[in-house]
């Protein structure tokens, strides 16, 4: 997704991960590698099926995750981070460190 003139690249990045569920989905895929839909549902029990499907589709459309279909007697679908998604790890780690430094208990602003 190339940045167009007058677009803020930071806003684009934040829009890719905006919403209540994208970061928890991303974090689970980062920690666990390829996972099936049912595993994501178990990991995020309060998300509705519709919302999980919607968030996965958006992440896939934005090139952050990959959806792999395996055929066989019992077909299965697995989700994993794409190279683009994995390339965000260091960026998200820096955001995490900043959050801990500035908003952890005992630290005032």
Automatic annotation (TrEMBL):
Q: Which UniProt keywords apply?
A: DNA-binding, Transcription, Transcription regulation
Give the residue spans that cross the bilayer. none
Record Pfam families: HxlR (PF01638)
Query: Among its keywords, does the record have Transport?
Result: no
Q: Does the keyword Signal apply?
A: no
* Domain annotation HTH hxlR-type: ranges: 8-107
PANTHER family, per the entry: TRANSCRIPTIONAL REGULATOR, TRANSCRIPTIONAL REGULATOR, MARR FAMILY
> What is the protein named?
Helix-turn-helix transcriptional regulator
